[in-house]
Amino acid sequence: MPPVSRRRAGRTRRRRQAGTALLLLVPAAVAYGMFVIRPILTTMQYSFYDWNGISPSTWVGLQNYTRILTDPELFGPILHAFELIVYFSLVPVCLGLLAAATIRKFATSRVAVVARVILFLPQVIPLVAAGIMWTWLLSTDGLVNQLLRLVGLGSVARAWLGDFDTALPAVGLIGAWVSLGLCMVLLLAGMTKIDPALYEAARLDGAGAVREFFAITLPSVRQELAVCLTVTVISALASFDIIYISTQGGPGNSTLVPGLEIYYLAFFEREVGQASALAVVLMVLVLAVVLPLQRVTRGRES
Questions:
Q1: Secondary structure class of 37 (helix, strand, coil)
Q2: 255, 247 in Cβ contact below 8 A?
Q3: Rg (CA), the chain
Q4: Which of 183, 179, 208, 214 has its CA nearest to residue 103?
Q5: Residue 86 and residue 172 in contact, taking contact as beta carbons nearer than 8 Å
Q6: pLDDT in tens, 155-166
Q7: What was the pLDDT predicted at 296?
Q8: Which residues contact 236 (CB under 8 A, 6 or more apart)?
C-alpha cells in the first residue's frame, strides 16, 4: 500500500475510534448534564429571586447574597463550617499519620490487622447510626458522663451536645472519629510504597524515629495527604447528616452549618431564593478550598 493510502487509512481509523469514544461518552454526558449541570444552573437562577416555591417569584438581584454577608444568622453557619475543618480534617489527618506510622512498623502482625479494622469501622457505619450512637454516649446519663463520674470527675459531666460551649466541639469529635479510619488507610497505603532502603540509609546516618518520619515518611505520602485533606475539608464544609441527627443545629444556632441552614430555609421557611444563594456560596467555598489543594498537588508532582 502506498504511503499516502496508509496515512489516509490511519486517519480514517483514528476518526472511527474517536467517534466510537464520543458515542460511549454521550450517555454519561447527558446524565451528568441533566442531574448535575442543570440543577446547578437552576440553583444559580433561583438565587437571584425572592421565591417561596409556589407563588410567582420576584427579581431581587444580589440581595440574597448581600443578606448572607450581613445577617449573622446566615453568616454564622459558614464560620461554624470553617471551625469544623479543625475537627473533621486536621485532627483525623494528624491522628491518621500517627496511626499509620505506628501500624506500618508491625504491618504483618495480627495486631495491625485488628487495629486497621477497628479504626476503619466508622467508615462502614451509616452516618445516621453514628450520630444516634454518639447522641446516646454524650447525653447527660450517657457512657461518657458515667465514666467521668466513676473516676471522680462528675463536676465536668454535662450534656455535651446540649451545651452552647461544647456542642460544636462534640460534633467535631464525631466527625473526627468518622474520618480517622479513611485517613489512616490512605496514608498507610502511601507508606507501604516507600522503599525500605531509604530508612536503612537514614539509620546508618544516625537518624532517629522522629527524623525518619519528617525526612522520609511525610514527604513520601504528600499525595495521599493532599487527598485526605481534600476529602475531609469537603466533608466539613458540606456537613449535614451527623449534625442533623445529633443536634439539628442547636442549642440555639451554635452548631448550625450551611447544609442544614439551606435545608431549613428551603423546606421550613419557604425561602427558596435565599436557600439557593447560600447553596451557591457553599459551592464556591468548597471550590475555593479544593482547587488550591489540587494545584499544590500538581505543582509537587512536577
A1: helix
A2: yes
A3: 25
A4: 183
A5: yes
A6: 899 999 999 999
A7: 73
A8: 81, 82, 84, 85, 87, 88, 89, 175
